[in-house]
Please model this.
Amino acid sequence: TVAADTTSIQNSIQGFINAYNAVITTLSKDITTNTQTLVRGPLAGDITFMGLQQSLQSITMSSVSTVQSGSPNMLSAIGITINSDGTLTISNSSTLTSALNTNLSGVSDLFSSSGGIMTQIYNLVNSFSTSGGIVDQKINGAQDQVNALNDQINMVQTSINMQADAMRRQYTALLTLMAQLNQTQSQMNQIYSMMGLTLG
Model:
């Protein structure tokens, strides 16, 4: 029997934790308002992504029912801690190594059984990331809003352009009229001067 490479498995678990933490950190930043700068995250107030964060954290905090009796059914049982910000940390590598050495199938069930942590997270994330999924729907909805806003901007810009054009034509007409009035006044002054009269 070939012994399992527990070091590689532990590195893979760390890789999963890193990827999970990146998602949690990004979500935490995007769905909240910075209390110091008061800058709203791009997804602030979006209940869909707030729900995603809560669901991810719920999965990692809950016990897994699809493991064999006596096998670890929570991350804490294999030395993985949930931090206050929702991220994960291998807080006790000795506990994890021991679990991998003594009950590899149990650790595997904890992560990859039908109700395992990775299985649940994969299914949840897939509902968001798959083609036509929640993220695609959000993107399409946002694009529709952008297009509608662009249409409104174009309508306003068209109206502004029409008003500006009308004002330019009015300005040109006024200049022309002023020149004609000045010319008329000049001609009148000339006539009155020739007649020995003065205006006013």
In short: The chain has two domains: 6-129, 141-200.
